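Hey,
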Amino acid sequence: MKKKVSWRSFLPPFCCGGLPAKAAKRVAAKQSSFTRLSMVDLSNPNSVLSEDLSVSLAGCNIHMFTLGEIKVMTQSFSTGNFLGEGGFGPVYKGFIDDKLRVGLKAQPVAVKLLDLDGSQGHREWLTEVIFLGQLRDPHLVKLIGYCCEDEHRVLVYEYMPRGSLENQLFRRFSVSLPWSTRMKIALGAAKGLAFLHGAAKPVIYRDFKASNILLDSDYNAKLSDFGLAKDGPDGDDTHVSTRVMGTEGYAAPEYVMTGHLTAMSDVYSFGVVLLELLTGRRSLEKNRPHREQNLVEFARSMLNDPRKLGRIMDSRLEGQYSEIGARKAAALAYQCLSQRPKQRPTMNEVVKILEPLKDYQDMPIGTFVFEMPESSPASKGSETPKEERKKVNDGGHQENGHHRGQNHHLRHPRSPNSLPENGVRNANRRPTSSVLHPRGGNGDRRP
């Protein structure tokens, strides 16, 4: 008979047990002058920090919930609260009321429950707690708390009503994201990466992709899923050598070839997402002709040619985008996707270039339709009940309302600022694996 093995049998004890009083005092004293912890701090068996995660993160304003409190939030993981499932495990919508815990405001939350048989494990859960527990920025999703009780590993986040960029950009039968919104999302995501790269202890995100960019109700972008994040190189080191993990189609070529990870690896991945925003196409699409399956290989050469750029721009935009802004964004994507890491811009430079693009106003006013009454042949000047609909295309520029006919009714094209009303939850993501591999038919993979 096969013996059941629990997480507790091979994990360090800091998650699930308390500290002796003397050890707790030593940790608290060490943490009184706060410096960000790294995974090395907690994986070192000789470090007192490895004895208790909750004490190690003292002062980070992260709550350690009990399993009972998690069940209250999710109504015992009710199927009515189920939002989706990814490589980490199932995700539920929950709600924290003001009676659950002193100091916690009432708010909706997203609760991720680690699947013990899934592709991710305790280390990814711990990495997420370490990074999001200590890093605070408007463009990183907020970790409210966690649960580490027996075999259970749970993460509790702020609720992101618009879901992921992947859902908003690629889902069928929905209103397309307007140009200004796409640039707003690109800018927010770029600021998130710039914050990570510029931290006192730089962080390399390593899994930047559309499904890991979450959107709030105003389409502000926030980075999520830090399970593959790594501390940047120390001292004179130029890179971090690590096992190749990530998502095919987004991972930088030099990282895939050598395992050498740098901040420029994130910049390349950002270029892929920016290209997806411009074209409305996924980074990998196996159902397309062979030469078009890899978006970067197919489209990169067209980004610096204004005559060819129009061919690859997302047709769902219906021409409602800034031509100047599109050229600048395409040139930026071209730089980010350079095969030579040193030729890519830093994320701070990316932010400066993107900052003005969402406000460009040189957007053509497309084809519009107006109705004009038809004169009656029987009596001059009179109108018949029947009106002829006439379609006018002025080459992309609307005149100042001066058209023939006494009465006309304009029917304007859909506003580029119209937004979908029903967001999709951030949790509805497809499962992925712990190593780099081609995405399946659904076009995604998970760490």
